[in-house]
Amino acid sequence: MIQIKDLHKSYHMGSNSLHVLKGINFDVKEGELVSIMGSSGSGKSTLLNILGMLDEADEGQYILDNVPIKNLNEKIAAKYRNEFLGFIFQSFNLINYKSALDNVSMPLYYKGIKRKERTERAMHYLEKVGLAEWSHHLPSELSGGQKQRVAIARALASDPKVLLADEPTGALDTKTSYEVMELIQGINDEGKTILVVTHEDDIAHMTKRIVNLKDGLIIDDSTVKQVRASEHV
Ligand code: ADP
Ligand code: MG
């Protein structure tokens, strides 16, 4: 599903430059649940942003579902991004003045899907994340864990090929973090390809594979026994 080869990325600020990704190689197969782990500043978000087509590498190859992602014009890039990718962020990124239902259905509006189907699909995914009864509530009326569930429903509603999550549990307490990861495990069990960025070891161990990033390089890439939320209690 994802192939990256010798990916490099630097940031330039005035006369200074910072070499953040120094030759990243890895592949992700369809249906995998992978975490990208590393300490703060190791380049995790930079890598995820490139995978999410929110940013471009300076050098190297990125192939997403057999499509080479390079020098695409913004219109085509946006089309692939919308079709292929779903995003989950640490800070949820919900629209505060819209209900849970509207938050989930809005991206479908931009895809030209008619109102009735938008609402049906949004309700389906809210049910999936256990929030059917909260569909008419505003984000401010929801707990952190519930907000992240809405964000997950929103990401799933477009049925992306790959789900990219940047520190999805970063703003949540420990118990809620495990519950959100358990939801992510369940979505992966149904076949979705998912990448989770985290700096937390026990969150990473809830995925089947851990890619360890340090100083812009992968220092370890291993298959692990996936811990289930129930094993944490
Ligand atoms: P992580 O997500 O692992 O914490 P990031 O990918 O966000 O790491 O950042 C890696 C390094 O790149 C950090 O030193 C950070 O300060 C720097 N950095 C990130 N984004 C930018 C940017 N837009 N401009 C300049 N430096 C950046
Ligand atoms: Mg980050």
Mean pLDDT: 95
Helicity, as a percent range: 25-40%
Q: Class, according to the CATH hierarchy?
A: Alpha Beta
Distance separating the two termini:
34 Å
Order of helical and strand elements: EEEHEEHEHHHEHEHEE
Uncertain runs are: none
Q: Describe the strand arrangement of the main beta sheet, using strand numbers.
A: 6-7-8-3-9-10
Bound small-molecule species: adenosine-5'-diphosphate, magnesium ion
The description of the largest β-sheet is: 6 strands, mixed
Q: How much beta, percentage-wise?
A: 25-35%
Total beta strand runs: 10
Write the SSE topology:
Elements: E1 2-13, E2 16-28, E3 33-37, H1 44-51, E4 59-64, E5 67-68, H2 74-84, E6 85-89, H3 100-110, H4 115-128, H5 144-157, E7 162-166, H6 174-189, E8 193-198, H7 201-204, E9 209-214, E10 217-223
Parallel strand pairs: 3-8, 3-9, 6-7, 7-8
Antiparallel strand pairs: 1-2, 1-4, 4-5, 9-10
Helix pairs in contact: 3-4, 3-5, 4-5, 5-6
Bound molecules: adenosine-5'-diphosphate and magnesium ion.
Adenosine-5'-diphosphate binds next to strand 1, strand 2 and helix 1.
Protein name: ABC transporter ATP-binding protein
Family: Belongs to the ABC transporter superfamily.
Domain ABC transporter: 2-233
